[in-house]
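hey so u asked for the seq, here:
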Amino acid sequence: MKFTELSLPEAVLKGIEQTGFVELTPVQQESIPLALQGKDVAAQAQTGTGKTAAFLISLFARLLAGEKRTGANPRALIMAPTRELVVQICEEAKGLGAHCPLVIQPIFGGVDYEKQRQALQKGVDVIVATPGRLIDYFKQRVFSLSSIEAVIIDEADRMFDMGFIKDLRYLLRKLPSFEKRQTMLFSATLSPRVMEMAYEFMDLAEKVQIEPEQVTAEKIDQVLYHASRREKFPLLLGLLKKEAETERVLIFVNTKKEAEHLTERLKANAFKAAVISGDIPQKKRMRILDDFKEGRLTMLVATDVASRGIHIEGVTHVVNYDLPQDSDDYVHRIGRTARAGAGGKAISFADEDTVYYLGDIEEFIGRKIPSLFPAEDDFCWQYKRSAPRKKAPVPEKAGGHDEGRILSHIQPPSNAAGRDAAATESSNGLSPVCTCVPSG
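ran it, structure tokens below
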């Protein structure tokens, strides 16, 4: 089905055409017609399936069809769990709403407080926000929610996971009653707790669920390697060397400590890498994402705090360096690639600790992930363990260079035992030098 077949305002169609969208994705085809009829919608939708465009197109059509109000209070509210997701929704809204006379304002913490306050006081049509700072302004009566015609809750399940449900309920209770507004809810899973909230705050919501085989984007080439913890880094280097067009690589780990450690090792081996995690200041985080988007960084190492907030076109590879414990996190992680109809590859490592999560992941996505045991030539065992430190010059001994200071001509081990031995040797300070040249 094409967007031109829908009864959409001309301004919205122009934005869709300018963005390059032609045909509706499954979640768009099921949810947009319902929303255009004014019905409430509760949709199961993964990132990368076009859900953001689905609710933005529906919202813009509704607002343009209504009477233009002259008041300063917002007409619509979009709530999301992370700052990154708020920014990305606003960016997509700028494209799709380029020809719509609507003022859209992001609200989230970590940036200029007074500037956001002044923007709200001037008057906006649509607020896209995380709950915390929005409640702060609301309690100060910077704006009112009495004029809200439509509310959208994006990634409702993550709202629960991140502890925002109390704030979300507070805001929903301050809105006009559900029969006086339209509500759309999008979630990775329509779990009992999500549906309980839908029953409480929505008007007989129409449920939209994508079939299990459609949970992950169709054009993602998925592969999983069984490797030990010691083997994962040389395997990562070897695969990156083999893979073509590794222009933007997003690598996911389970802990902040591992993210920082892995980033340092990648940088030591000449990769343009940076880490993004929950405790990085917002301005720095946005600068890192801009560098990744513009190609100044080719690799981004992230924890799951970023997995639902990064919407960057052109991510060629996603690597699950650590297999996630939660099955829906796997879907959200790999959904960073193969966006907007493009192709992409998702590479996962299952080590002795995380292999136990594999069964639940495969059950959740409704398919087996093709699994391999890596071959010898998949590894790159010659690499630097860390960036060289600057040291005071040491007088040269009579016999030439200080013994043990320089290590060269290391041959990769030919079997697993040899690899473990090499790892032990490296841990004693004898760090092999990587001969891998980063692609892209």
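The CA atoms of residues 66 and 149 lie 9 Å apart. The radius of gyration is 25 Å.
lmk if thats what u needed
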